[in-house]
Amino acid sequence: MANSIIMPKTGMAMETGVIIRWLKKEGDAVKKGEPVAEIETDKTAMELESDYEGVILKILRLEGETVPVTETIAWIGKQGEAVPAAPLPESARTDKPQETPAVQTSGVNHGFSDGAGVRGKIPATPAARRRALELGIGLSSISSLPERGYLKAADVTAAGAFGNSSVKVSATPLARRIAETRAIPLEKVAGSGPGGKIIKTDVLYLNGMGTEAGTGPQTTAADSVIPLTSIQKITAKRMFQSHSEIPVVTIAMNADVTKLVDLRSQLNEELDGIKISINDFAVKAAALALRQHPRLNAEFAGDHLLARGNININIAVDTDQGLMVPVIRNADLLPLASISVQSRSLAEKARSRKLSPEDMQGGTFTISNVGMQGVTFFTPIINQPQTAILGVCAIEERLVKVQGDIQERKIMGLCLTFDHRALDGAEAARFLQTLKIYLEKPLKLLTGR
Question: Before 385, cis peptide (omega within 30)?
Answer without folding.
Answer: yes
